[in-house]
Amino acid sequence: MKKCEVVIKGAKEQGKSSSSSSVTLKSISYGQCQKNHAAKSGGYAVDGCREFMASGEEGTREALKCAACGCHRNFHRREVDADQS
Predict the structure, then answer these.
(1) For the chain, what is the largest distance between any 2 Cα atoms, rounded to a whole number of angstroms?
(2) Is 67 within a domain?
(3) Three-state DSSP class for 2?
(4) Which domain holds residue 35?
(5) What is the pLDDT of residues 13-50, one digit of tens each?
(6) Is residue 33 situated within a structural domain?
(7) Which UniProt key words apply to this protein (predicted)?
(8) Other C-beta atoms within 10 Å of 54: how many?
């Protein structure tokens, strides 16, 4: 499962000025597909895709499409790992 890192910038302490900032890294991965394929008929059925695998290179439109099930990345469960310093 491919993981990406997100950088969040913010003030170190509330009393400090905004010019001093800290950086927090979070590792994000995408797991099980949650797309309901039977929603049109009023039912509930998922395809069983267990993890997101990008179809293309990062930065392209294909990077947001799963190679295993063909769904968009937003249908997959987002998993955020613990903060890293």
Answers:
(1) 56
(2) yes
(3) coil
(4) 25-84
(5) 445 455 555 667 778 899 999 999 999 999 999 988 99
(6) yes
(7) Metal-binding, Zinc, Zinc-finger
(8) 17
According to the model, what pLDDT value does residue 9 have? 52
**According to the model, what pLDDT value does residue 26 have?**
79
What value, to the nearest 5°, has the Cα angle with vertex 49 and ends 44 and 51? 130
* Residue 72, CA distances (Å) to 9, 13, 41, 62 in order: 28, 38, 21, 9
Contact present, 79 and 31 (Cβ < 8 Å): yes
Which amino acid is residue 70, in one-letter code? G
- Give domain status of residue 17, yes or no: no
Q: How many domains does the chain have?
A: 1
Q: How sure is the predictor about 64, in pLDDT bands with cuts at 50, 70 and 90? A: very high
Picking from 44, 40, 48, the residue whose alpha carbon sits closest to that of residue 71 is 48
The answer to whether position 52 is within a domain reads yes
Which comes out higher in pLDDT, residue 52 or 14?
52
How many alpha carbons lie under 13 Å from residue 81 in its C-beta half-sphere? 15
